[in-house]
Known about the structure:
Largest sheet: none
Radius of gyration: 47 Å
Strand content: under 5%
CATH superfamily of the domain at 435-564: Homeodomain-like
CATH topology of the domain at 435-564: Arc Repressor Mutant, subunit A
Helix content: over 70%
Number of helices: 26
Low-confidence stretches: 1-24, 355-369, 425-430
Structural class: mainly alpha
Amino acid sequence: MKKFKKQFIVLVLLLFIRLSSQQIDGPSFDDIRSQYQNLPKNDIRALPYVSDYIRKAKKAADFKALTQGYRDAVLYIPDEKMKLVYSDSMIYAAEKSRDNSLLTLAYLGKGIIYYFNYKKFEPALDQYLKAYDYSKKTEDLYLKYKVIYHLGVVKSYLGYYQDAAKHFSNCLSFFEKESQKRKHQNEIYNYKRGYYNSLHQIIICYRNLNRQHLSDSLLTLGIEKINRESEFSLERSYLLKCRGISGFKNRNYRSAVIDFETALPELEKKDFSYASVVYFYLGQCLMVTDERKGVEKLQKVDSVFRKHGFILPELRQNFEILINYYRKKADIGKELYYTNQLLKVDKALAKDFTYLSSRIHKEYDTKDLLEKKEFLKRKSTLRLYLLIVISLLAIILIMFLTWRYYRERNIRLRYERLQERLLGHSECPEIKDKAEEAKKITALSPELIRELSEKIRKFEASRGFTKTGLTQHDLASQLGTNYKYLSIYINEIKGVNFKNYLNRLRIDYITELLNNDRKYLNYTTEALAEECGVATRQSFSDLFQEINGIRPQDYIRQRKQEIRK
Length: 565
């Protein structure tokens, strides 16, 4: 019992010490964040708690927590200059943490501020590229593709549509695949949102690249999918806006107006830049039937520009339309006003869009000259490539024809020499007996020589050499003589060894058949080899070449040509 009391007292003391420690150290990071994390962004009520969070993180030298604290400060501070200041602090804390995921998040956050708050797209792109470098060292795939997406948004805005489309294509594949894997609702939402935003951006890229068919196909797919969702109202408005633009370009003004008017309320609340795009295209649709209503929408584009100092490049034409409209109305004041506004637009675009600045000049001569120059360069380069390719092909063809000519001529000469030999017009290198010369040196008696000569003559006359696999022992046994005597006779009287003796008989025999009997000209090489007793096709071809100086296929081809003549 006493032991139990002691344990109870110790437990109470430990609990008291822990509670006292918490009171001294203050609330935990999670406790502090729970006070404000559900508040909407730019809500200043969160700032005192964010200050406590940052103070605690600094005291603990917890750079991961400090990065989170500065990230929260960026989210809740309404002042745009202070957002940029806190984003720099976030980068500092992330660098101290040496965590690649945090560094990715920090540079991405600063880029987003430049893009969404300051509309400074070039520094935003610089930050996104730094974030991308760090993202390659992290295993957080969602963060990686979030960077790729935002980098693509800036590139698209700057006019690098081809490059941006590659970013969005990769994002589409990733977000779609992951949205089907993940089971947690928040994760599913984030991946689907990433998918629809990537789809929206790639549709814009393909439209600007004049790949309208592909753009419309993706648009149809996206709207079918998003209509089955209960969320993503802003993303649905983006797609309806794109469909309206497609309808406008195809002169389906009525359906385009419906899409624009459906998309506009959500865009006016959450994205003034794309609301301005809707005003532009909706105004042109309405002008077809009611110029006054159409002009009212076009004037709203100017209102957005005056309020935010921001405009998309494709909206430049909005001011040209208004200038022309008031010129026709002879309203010099309004024409002058919108001319001045157009100059301001050009200045703004030239300032923020290095890549696009050359494309906002509308002088026909400059554009035409550049197009002609580019066309001539492409034409000249193409001609050079074609000339090189044709020259190489011509050289190869000449070399081939030359080789073929000399090869055919050589084959023809060898064929003619062989034919002369067969017709007896030249010395025939047949195997003849050398009995008179051999009498002086041979170990065989004259009677034995005469006997063997007669037997060999009968062997040759009966075509016994056409038996495949015939050996010297086989022939000696067949002739009823001693193997040694036969060997001496062939070597000394015939002047060759047994192998060459048989080979010569076989090739001479088949050559005579080919020359005198046309049916053999249609035999395959294998059949000809079998006919004369040679074991294999290759051995036959090699022996024919060695003895006659020409391949059997070439001899047959030449012989057929001669017969046709």
